[in-house]
Amino acid sequence: QGGKAAPAKKKEGSGGGKAKKKKWSKGKVRDKLNNAVLFDAATYDKLYKEVVAYKLITPSVVSERLKVRASLAKAGLRELEAKGMVKCIVRHSGQLVYTRATKADDVIVE
């Protein structure tokens, strides 16, 4: 029974140096929207010529395509609906969904 002790083992996990700290990303930068707060003549014409031809019309779609504020888009859509140029499909809470008024709709109404 020799008194030789087993050679001391290295502690596991101590090798490899200090771990690097995680570098956090700065996040994505969104472009600042610069949407109009009032209709100018050109945009107002677009509202009457182009928007009435869309199949799906929502304030967000109008806002994005015409570069106007959503509140202005909503006001424009209310005006178009009053004149019978677009038809409201869904009016749920804050989400309004319109579609173009077709000739078939006019026949049903009369």
TrEMBL record:
This protein's record includes keyword Protein biosynthesis: no
Single GO cellular component term: ribonucleoprotein complex
Biased composition, class Basic residues, residue ranges: 18-27
Signal peptide start and end residues: none
Region (Disordered): 1-27
Keywords: Ribonucleoprotein, Ribosomal protein
Domain of life where this protein originates: Eukaryota
Entry annotated with the keyword Ribosomal protein: yes
Family according to the record: Belongs to the eukaryotic ribosomal protein eS25 family.
Name of the featured protein: 40S ribosomal protein S25
